[in-house]
Specification:
The chain has 228 residues and is of the alpha/beta class. 36% of the residues lie in helices and 19% in strands. The longest helix is centred in the N-terminal third of the chain and has 15 residues. The C terminus is likely disordered.
Length: 228
């Protein structure tokens, strides 16, 4: 589409390494479109640069594109932990991660993040959820439990090709999983969130900071009283 071409022409260029990974993903895997790609990859990198996390958790590595894109934005000492539950992806993904320019910032693990991520004993500043849609809600609750107050979650595929607004979604477990996740997040007073209509839907979620009792009513403190 012309508007998509226009957007990409006016977005920072995709690094050659990631372009080659994107091409290889589409040639050698069945679901190549699952890779983040140019636009989303540049957004993920910029979000990391804005949030400036020390530790990032990724649920769902796939071919490693999003992990590498986010690791590009990490500051020195930053670390990204990424989990892929499908061990059949390891032979493809591990070499691409380990030969990337940011390999020393990425810890790639084969396993179920739902059970394995909490075992790391790490409090994360940012997380990217892009795993099995049927378990999105459980994954979100797990991530929120090990995310610092004020930290951010980015969830992919939250519009699911528009199926979230179709009446027949209850007949598909993955669509139902995304719908349940969206409803759960929207009603969760622990967070604030916004859905971006980027690609297949991208939800940005911020875990609310712990209220500081000393700042209660702070918005009125320091105001000069108006004399009548």
């Amino acid at each position: 589409m012309r508007i998509e071409d226009y957007i990409l022409r006016h977005t920072s260029p995709e690094p050659d390494y990631l372009y080659r990974l994107w091409r290889a993903t589409n040639v050698h895997t069945i679901h190549g479109r699952m890779a983040s790609g140019h636009l989303q990859g540049r957004l993920l990198k910029m979000l990391v640069q804005m949030i400036r996390p020390t530790n990032i958790l990724e649920v769902g590595t796939f071919s490693g594109y999003s992990a590498i894109a986010m690791a590009e934005g990490l500051e020195p000492g930053g670390r990204l932990y990424t989990f892929e539950i499908n061990d059949e992806m390891e032979d493809f993904t591990r070499p691409w991660i380990e030969q990337s320019p940011v390999a020393n910032r990425i810890d790639f693990r084969i396993g179920d993040a739902l059970t394995e991520a909490p075992k790391l004993g790490i409090t994360f500043d940012m997380a990217f959820i892009d795993g099995d849609k049927r378990h999105y809600r459980e994954c979100y609750d797990m991530v929120l439990s090990i995310l610092r107050p004020g930290g951010y979650i980015v969830a992919d595929n939250t519009l699911w090709d528009g199926h979230v607004v179709e009446a027949a979604y209850e007949h598909d477990q993955q669509t139902q999983g995304v719908v349940d996740f969206n409803n759960h997040v929207a009603s969760d007073n622990r967070v604030e969130q916004v859905i971006l209509p980027l690609r297949d839907g991208l939800t940005l979620i911020r875990k609310r900071p712990i209220p500081d009792p000393s700042r209660a009513g702070g918005e009125t403190k320091g105001r000069r009283e108006v004399k009548k």
